[in-house]
TrEMBL record:
Full protein name: Ammonium transporter
SUPFAM superfamilies on file: Ammonium transporter
Domain Ammonium transporter AmtB-like, first and last residues per copy: 31-444
PANTHER family documented for this protein: AMMONIUM TRANSPORTER 2 MEMBER 5, AMMONIUM TRANSPORTER MEP2
Keyword Transmembrane helix belongs to the record: yes
Membrane-spanning intervals of the chain: 30-51, 63-83, 122-141, 148-169, 189-208, 220-237, 249-270, 279-298, 304-324, 345-368, 397-422
Gene Ontology CC: plasma membrane
Any GO molecular function: ammonium channel activity
NCBIfam families for this protein: amt (TIGR00836)
UniProt keyword annotations, A-Z: Ammonia transport, Membrane, Transmembrane, Transmembrane helix, Transport
Organism: Morus notabilis
Pfam families per the UniProt record, alphabetical: Ammonium_transp
Superkingdom as given in the UniProt entry: Eukaryota
Length: 466
């Protein structure tokens, strides 16, 4: 085999040492790429399988396709302009300047945080942006016009996600400078997607009445396979956010799984207590609420706090979903297919508040490298710094209010504008049919070799003209 390096000259403007500069930590770079791929697999194939299995058979293709499209569309928008709007030069206190992120010189600079190149950071932050849009889709399954979804994705990414990401995660952002604790996206991803999904569901309108009344999953095992990928993928979701291979990353990973297990078990016990049967769908909901709740606090709370957070995330969203939602006429008017309001908005809000209570100063120092500035209220009271603790809780609540208001307003405007171009909701006739009407495809072949009834028959080498 020939040596390609002997025939292709190395670019004259680079030295061999530039491929691994002294400032770059190879272990950190390798872990960051690995963590990003874990998060990407939560979407493709994780949520693709979860959504595809959790809906009626007639919506399996459409639901999975919404995930696939969003993942691809977000990536192109991300490198085109959205990354710089989220993490680039400041335009306003709440927003960065739009610019491309495809330049080699920009790629190989040190990232804004961490000892790895910007190109790694672009990839890492992309998978978080993508999964946020995919979570929004969960509220819209089973009726949104796919062409409307194609327009919604780039618009919402550009005018909603980038604002919240810059404000909370960029070192120059308003809430980052205020000291808001959002370790890995309880605000930026889960609260945003839950509120935006619920708002968009209001504007899109409901499924057919018979679908709202009975919407059984077409493949529970497929749904569980997607849920398993979502759970295990959260290792990268929370473990990658210190931007360094550290003890804090390890703590975040363990806390994530401990909280999730406690939440799942709590939800199952509540189902048994009130409905006399353990529900696997309920277990998945409890799993998700645990993952979401721990996310804003994963590396800044102790293990006992993670268990308490799991118990609360398995019970409070259960209560809002099973009791409050069923008694509220306002909530029942909105058709939130996958209950993202409860599993993401409520659980994300809960996690943000509990971070303001349980954040441990020494662990906050490991993550933020700033002493005595980040402190949960309980520790503030214990250490005689009640003012610092109350301030932290106040910032957490302030951030929740900001994210809710931004997402309600921007999502409503986007839905209105998209509705001027194409209908947001499929017609009732197409809703009766599902995937066949939307895409001309079906998820499963239930007879023969997958042929459709009344389809054109042909044999190899012979085409039968209609």
């Amino acid at each position: 085999m020939s040596n390609i390096n002997a025939t292709v000259p190395f670019p004259s403007n680079l030295a061999w040492s530039d491929a691994s500069p002294e400032w770059m930590n190879k272990a950190d770079n390798a872990w960051q790429l690995t963590a990003a791929t874990f998060v990407g697999m939560q979407s493709i194939p994780g949520l693709l399988l979860l959504y595809g299995g959790a809906v009626k058979k007639k919506w399996a293709v459409n639901s999975a396709f919404m995930v696939l499209y969003a993942f691809a569309c977000v990536l192109i928008c991300w490198v085109g302009w959205a990354y710089q709007m989220s993490f680039g030069a400041k335009l306003f206190a709440f927003w960065g300047k739009a610019n491309v992120a495809l330049d080699q010189t920009f790629y190989f600079k040190m990232a804004f945080l961490g000892l790895f190149p910007t190109v790694t950071m672009i990839y890492f932050q992309f998978v978080f942006a993508a999964i946020t849009l995919i979570l929004v889709a969960g509220a819209l399954l089973g009726r949104m016009n796919f062409y409307a979804w194609m327009l919604f994705v780039p618009l919402w990414l550009t005018f909603s996600y980038t604002i919240v990401a810059f404000t909370i995660w960029s070192p120059k952002g308003y809430f980052a400078l205020k000291g808001l604790i959002d370790y890995s996206g309880g605000y930026v991803i889960h609260l945003s997607s839950g509120v935006a999904g619920f708002t968009a569901a209001y504007w899109v309108g409901p499924r057919l009445n018979k679908d709202r009344e009975r919407f059984p999953p077409n493949n529970v095992l497929l749904m569980l396979a997607g849920a398993g990928l979502l759970w295990m993928g959260w290792t990268g979701f929370n473990g990658g956010d210190p931007y360094v291979v550290s003890m804090d990353a390890s703590l975040a990973v363990l806390n994530t799984h401990v909280c999730t297990a406690a939440s799942l078990l709590t939800w199952v016990l509540l189902d048994i207590s009130f409905f006399r049967k353990p529900s696997v769908i309920g277990a998945v909901q409890g799993m998700i609420t645990g993952l979401v709740c721990i996310t804003p606090a994963a590396g800044v709370v102790q293990g006992w706090a993670a268990i308490i957070m799991g118990i609360l995330s398995g019970s409070i969203p259960w209560f809002t979903m099973m009791v409050v939602h069923k008694k509220s006429k306002l909530l029942q008017k909105v058709d939130d297919t996958m209950a993202v309001l409860h599993t993401h908005a409520v659980a994300g809000t809960l996690g943000g508040i509990l971070a303001g209570l349980f954040a441990e100063p020494k662990l906050c120092f490991l993550f933020y490298t700033v002493r005595n500035e980040y402190m949960g209220l309980f520790y503030g009271l214990q250490l005689g710094k009640a003012g610092t603790g109350f301030r932290q809780l106040g910032i957490q609540l302030y951030g929740i209010l900001f994210v809710v208001v931004i997402n309600v307003i921007v999502t409503s405007i986007i839905c209105y504008l998209v509705g001027l171009v194409v209908p947001l909701r499929m017609s009732d006739e197409d809703l009766e049919i599902g995937d066949e009407a939307a895409h001309g495809e079906e998820a499963y072949a239930i007879w023969g070799q997958g042929e459709k009834e009344n389809s054109t028959k042909f044999v190899p080498g012979q085409i039968e003209m209609a």
